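Z., the sequence and structure:
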Amino acid sequence: MDMGVPQGSIIGPLLSNVILHILDGYIEKEIEKHKGKAVGKKHLLTNPNYHKLTMRISRLKNKIIDSPPPKQKNTHRIKKAVSM
């Protein structure tokens, strides 16, 4: 194949610098465009299912921490809450 720039030629690094400069400019514009939109809204950037599950885990942890120590007869309630 006679496509592309030959390996070891002087033009290779120059062309890659040109392309990387264009890419850097594009990325900087995208960062500026989206800057400040995610402040206080981190959960909007995550997968909704992941957010739902992490919130559920957090609520269950708080439920366990706030509940009195389980008696033998109440263990089925905890198992049921965790398995939902």
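Residues 8 and 62 are 62 Å apart (CA to CA). Residues 11-34 form the longest helix (24 residues).

Let me know what you think.
H.
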